[in-house]
Amino acid sequence: MNNKDTPTVDIEKAIKNCYSTWGEVYYDEYYGDGAPYPPVHLNLIKSILNDAGSKRVLDAGCGPASMLRHFLQKGREIYGFDLTPEMVLEAKRVMGQLGVPESHVWEASVLNPSGYFCDSANDDKYDAIVSCGVFPHLREEDEIVAISNIYNSLMPGGLAIVEARNALFSLFALNRHTYEFFTEKLIPVEELRGFATNEENVKLEVALEQLKAQLRTDLPPIRKGKAGELGYDEVLSRLHNPLELERVFKEVGFQEVEVVFYHFHSLPPQFSGSIRNLFLQGSINMEENPRDWRGYFMASAFCVVAKK
Ligand SMILES: C[S@@+](CC[C@H](N)C(=O)[O-])C[C@H]1O[C@@H](n2cnc3c(N)ncnc32)[C@H](O)[C@@H]1O
Prior knowledge:
Elements: H1 8-19, H2 26-31, H3 40-52, E1 56-60, H4 68-71, E2 77-82, H5 85-97, E3 105-107, E4 126-131, H6 140-153, E5 154-165, H7 170-173, H8 176-186, H9 189-195, H10 198-213, H11 242-252, E6 255-264, H12 276-286, H13 295-298, E7 299-307
Parallel strand pairs: 1-2, 1-4, 2-3, 4-5
Antiparallel strand pairs: 5-7, 6-7
Bound molecules: S-adenosylmethionine.
C-alpha cells in the first residue's frame, strides 16, 4: 500500500481488515509450539520491565494480549488496547480468564492521545508502555504523534519499549528488501539520472538491472490474507532504520535511549531452509546478547528502549 497519499483513516481501516481474522489464531501462530521461531522478545521485554520494577504497564497495540498475558505478576496492574475489534475481543477473553478486569482492555489507536487511558476516571500515567508490531503500520509522518502520545502517557522516569522491523537487516538479507534499500535509501538514483548523459543513463539502468540480478528479489514471499482479507504485505507494513527511530525518540524528549535487537539470523534467510536446525541454533545463540553490534545487520527486529 502506498502510504504517501493515503489518509490515516483508510490505512487504519485496511489494518483492521488485515488483522480481523487473526484474533483467535495469532497467539498460537507466533507464540505457540508451532511458531516458526521462538518468541525470544518476550523474555527480553519481561526482563526490561522487571529490572525497571514497572508496576503499572500498558501494551499499546496489544493484539490478543499475546504479550500482556505474560506480564501479569503480583503487585503489577496491566492494561492494553488495540485498533482491531477482533483482537480486543480475544484479549478481553484471555485477560478475563486471568482475573484481570475487562475494563483493562479497550479499543483505540496509538494515534489518539485519549486512547491511552481506559476511561477518564482512570487516567493515572503508566510507568511502562510497551508497543510491539504496531509501528510498521504507521505512516512516517504519524510516528512522531505515537511517540509523543507514549511520552505524554508515561509518568516521569517511565519506560517506553517500542518494537520495529529493522530496515538495516535488508543489507544482510540479499533479497527484494536489499534491492529496495539500495535503490530507495542508499543510491541517489533520481539524482544520478538527472545529471547523467544519455549514454551514462543507459549504462546506469544496466547497472541497476545487474544489481537486481545478483539478489533473490522473488523473496521473501508476499504474505496474503487467509480468507479474502488483506494480507500483512498488502497493508502498510514499513521497516525502520534503528538509527533514525532512536533520533525521533530523543527529539520528543526521551532520555537514555538505546536499541536492543532480536530475531537474529545466523545466515541470510534464503540459506536457512536446507540447514534449518543449524540456522536455528546459531540464531538462538546470538539472541543472548541483544546489544551485539551485529544486530544492526543480522537481526530483523529491534526495540527502542527509552526513559521519560
Ligand atoms: C503484529 S500484531 C502484534 C500484537 C502484539 N502487540 C504482539 O506483539 O504480539 C500488531 C497489532 O497492532 C495493532 N495495531 C495496528 N495499528 C494500530 C494502531 N494505530 N493503534 C493500535 N493498534 C494498532 C493491530 O490491530 C494488531 O493487533
